[in-house]
Amino acid sequence: MTEEPYDPGHEGAKMSFADAMSYGDYLSLPPILDAQHPRSRAHDEMLFIIQHQTSELWMRLVIHELTEARRQMNAGNLAPVFKMLTRVARIFEQLNSAWDVLRTMTPSEYTEFRGDLGASSGFQSHQYRMIEFMLGNRNPNMIKIHAHVPDVHQSLEAELARPSLYDDAVRLLYLHLDGTDARPPSPQLRQPHQADPEIQIRWKQVYENVNEHWQIYELAEKLVDLEDYFRRWRFNHVTTVERVIGFKRGTGGTAGVSYLRRMLDVVLFPELWDVRGDL
Question: Which residue of 19, 129, 191, 254 has the fewest CB atoms within a 10 Å radius of its CB?
């Protein structure tokens, strides 16, 4: 006797969604799954598109987390900040894994559709630029490529005009150590954060008296953890590009691998790394 196929509806699972919100409705899946439009017949172009689209979705979450982390930090609520910064670090760990998938595409397979990319390039990701700006790596020249999208250009300009998340962490560091007499250095708004010996001295005080300054110490380590994963992501990006296109110029006109290698030298929170040599 043939056993009847399992029907989850018999156990109470809802099976009709004509009048209710479904999984696909909640996630707006139709427009997301219809957003892949390869411009060639190359099989691997779909991989290339989805890898970059999912990276942009993760970056959207990074911006969401950093925005709230900064708000909570400025309100003096560090406990949620620790969780959010940990989440951002793990997002970059996830983004790292994405390069492993993209590296399954060979140079021969990429050349089948590379010409169809035109001048588009990940270099033009405004979300990646926003993340850099929020963390303190600020280069106003990088806004030029977004002039054709006024809303994006305006949001990046607005970020340059306010302290970075690291600037806010430094301000909190000074307040914690010096109280009402605190005189933190002025935020470095429209330029990459440059190492300040005075800031390093303050972090050294924290690391030499961990029990006394536990919360600020934990904040420092969460920032280092975040940059650690961020650096790994950049390194894997360079390795992937070199593996797939070698030293050819990027589709957006950048120098390709040599440009990306230059980015590996960028340090977001230099005092937190340099202080380790002082302990």
Answer: 19
Tokens of 61: 């979450």
What string of DSSP letters covers the chain? -PPPPP-GGGGT-----TTS--HHHHHTHHHHHT----SSS-TTHHHHHHHHHHHHHHHHHHHHHHHHHHHHHHTT-HHHHHHHHHHHHHHHHHHHHHHHHHTTS-HHHHHTTGGGGTT--GGG-HHHHHHHHHHT---GGGGGGGTTSHHHHHHHHHHHTS--HHHHHHHHHHHHHHGGG--PPPP--SSPPPP-HHHHHHHHHHHHSTTTTHHHHHHHHHHHHHHHHHHHHHHHHHHHHHHHHTTPPPTTSS-THHHHHHHTT--SSHHHHHGGGG-
Binned at pLDDT 50, 70 and 90, residue 150 comes out as very high
17-41 residue pLDDT tens: 999 999 999 999 999 999 999 999 9
Contacts of 233 (CB under 8 A, 6+ apart): 92, 95, 96, 99
